[in-house]
Amino acid sequence: MKMLKVKSLFVNYGAVEALKNISLHIKEKEFVALIGSNGAGKTSLLNAIMGIVKPKDGEVIFNDKNITGFPPERKVKEKIALVLEGRRVFANMTVLENIEVGAFTSDNKNFIKRLKFIYDIFPVLKERSWQPAGMLSGGEQQMLAIARALISEPKLLLMDEPSMGLAPLVIKDVYEKLLILKETGLTIFLVEQNAAAALKYADRGYVLENGKIVLQGKSKELLEDNEIKRAYLGKEYKEKWER
User: Fold this and answer.
1) Position 243 pLDDT exceeds 60
2) Distances (CA, A) of 118 to 103, 105, 113
3) Under a CB-based contact definition with an 8 Å cutoff, are residues 95 and 122 in contact?
4) Regarding beta strands 16-27 and 2-13, do their DSSP bridges make them parallel or antiparallel, or are they unpaired?
5) With CB atoms 3.0 to 4.6 Å apart as the test, which of 15, 20, 35, 228 could cross-link to 195 if both were Cys?
6) Between 86 and 83, whose confidence is greater?
């Protein structure tokens, strides 16, 4: 079943076309990555799906319901959650208080159940639940940002640049946690500049350039594509490709 369908989506900022005729889909319990360079339009796509920006044209269909015009809080109630770029935790609030911020759709009984689920996956957050979030490392703050999204019990988790500013070992840890979440039945759609990390863990991928999807396929196929290697997978690939 296709959980999310984006159909012919256009997003403009004034006269600037940020997204041009974007169509993609994500199946239930699938882990999909959208890769692209800075300024390609990745965040604009997530914001359009989430209702933070209004598309000029096109549709966002979630579980066969047209949710294009829904505001963000309505989309959270429809069981979509977004982890923003840069984590954006509330540094002076405790870890637990940060998680509680995302729980406005939960009753108390369900909150306790979800909190246990989150602490089972991210035990470090349980250990530090009463510490200010600003005292956490970058990787721990990313896990807290994910936890804050998870407390609303989403069916679809959207993530914006989860590896940004993190060391390679921390990135690996974050992505392995995402795989655990996928195994629990969560559907994941993330956007990344770090193509190597995203495609290593995702089932499928899309490539976005200048507001357009230029390539799509299984992650393994994209990782083996010479053009992807040249453009996104580092200097050593570029030198080999251009020799």
Assistant:
1) no
2) 13, 16, 9
3) no
4) antiparallel
5) 35
6) 83
Measured distance CA(199)–CA(231) in Å, rounded: 14
What is the per-residue pLDDT for 87? 73
Domain extents for the chain? 1-79+156-162+188-243
Q: Which residues contact 28 (CB under 8 A, 6 or more apart)?
A: 1, 2, 3, 155, 187
Per-residue pLDDT tens digits for 90-114: 999 999 999 998 887 666 678 999 9
- Asked if 156 and 187 count as a contact pair (C-beta separation under 8 A), the reply is yes
Q: How far apart are CA 67 and CA 27, in angstroms?
A: 17
Using CA atoms, how far apart are residues 35 and 214, in angstroms rounded to an integer?
Answer: 11
Nearest one of 17, 206, 1 to 9, comparing CA atoms? 17
Q: CA dist 240 to 199, 221, 227, 230, Å?
A: 20, 19, 12, 8
Angle between helix axes 168-183 and 108-121 (nearest 10 degrees) is 130
Are β-strands 156-160 and 187-192 bridged in parallel, bridged antiparallel, or unpaired? parallel
- What are the beta bridge partners of residue 10? 57
Confirm if 85 and 44 have CB atoms less than 8 A apart. no
Q: What is the mean pLDDT of the chain?
A: 91
184 pLDDT band (50/70/90 cuts)? very high
